Amino acid sequence: MDKHSRRSVLKAGGALGALGALSLASPAQAVPWTWSAKGSVAGTGAGTDPRWVWDPEADPLVADLLDRGDVAAVNQLLRTWTKNGQPLPAGLPADLREFMEQARQLPPWADHGKLATAYEFNEKRGLYLGVLYGLASGMMSTVIPKEARAVYYSQGGADMKDRISKTAKLGYDIGTRNAYAPDGEMIVTCVKTRLVHAAVRHLLPQSPHWPGVADEDIPISQADMMVTWHSLPTTVMQKMTAWKVPIPAGESTAFLHSWQLGAHMLGIKDEYIPASWAEANSQAKQVLDPVLAPTPEGIDLADILLNLGAEVDGGILSKPILGAFTRFMLGDQIADWLNIDREPLWDSLLDVAWEPFIAVREGLLPLPLAPKAYWMFDEFLRKAALLFLSEAKPISIEIPDTNRPE
Ligand code: HEM
User: Fold this and answer.
1) What are the ER-bound oxygenase mpaB/mpaB'/Rubber oxygenase catalytic domain coordinates in residue numbering (predicted)?
2) Contact partners, residue 326, CB within 8 Å, separation at least 6
């Protein structure tokens, strides 16, 4: 661990010390899975608790690749595999090829009509989506203890900027016109991410930090993946609804469909994927809300995230403004957990002017009440969307072969 991060962790640890032994108090493991598979895409299921299901197809395969030292060569070959319809590169190990050929197949329930509507929604709502994926979902991931720790101690934890670009690639790819079509990239991104997650399941338990911080033997269970999934589409849709952004029912269902498909392609079993927003909201209430908690690792990650904007644009994406948006979107409790300062000017401006700003933007309110603040909000949306989504394009997702370097 470099000096800076060690210092931040210690600092964050000190702050947390005052709140008690949070990592021990983390309720993550305590939430039983009682959500019924009747509400899932599959409509039925074996009833296995997804906290004890990982990825039985990918995990042993990738563990074996790591053990036999094949990952560097595989990554090099996979760099050339970028489009959904492209044949897999020659030279991949036979067992990996066989898995990937199967993993890249869309399920029979994929609905291309809905995907076309999802694209219309993404086009219209790209600015909101960029900010929400980046600040609502991205910052929420830092208060999902299992995810924060996994990210922090895995290889990518050492370079958050690179990691964010890679993760943003998925948010970008899913919103493109051809996301799941042969000339799109979302299937490739999902299959590669599935391999990355399988590698993390094998590597992370070998980290010297893992036994001290984790309350589990193997990370990234199917339940964990659904928790993170809810920090994405479910949270985004909840926020847009709260902001009264007008969304036709067909577009809302279509957006959900594109993310249901994303979950499937990431290796999540259909019996755990909610079939409707009502089911998604009820599952999120059960599995996401109760696990949110601060950790030293998450606090450090959040701090890095909030500083990234200023690197790109020292003005409109400065740390205080990103912090105020985070507080506005995720609430005081989460903002306080993350040691985000109160910004009296920005906090009150957002509280008062954000909803009217949306209404004006959406043509629902004819007269801008505070044009200057609205211009700033609009500029903020554009810059943040650019930071979180558009920068993601040329990145290649690679299978890690180590944990975070010491
Ligand atoms: C890697 C997305 C769930 C931990 C990635 C990557 C993407 C991604 C796109 C590749 C980027 C990269 O290599 O840095 C998602 C999505 C999820 C999900 C969409 C759920 C729907 C989870 C969960 C955890 C997790 C639940 C942990 C509990 C990680 C880690 C990496 C990773 C540790 C690798 C970082 C490294 O390179 O070392 N994820 N993920 N992910 N994910 Fe996830």
Assistant:
1) 131-342
2) 135, 139, 302, 306, 334, 335, 338, 340
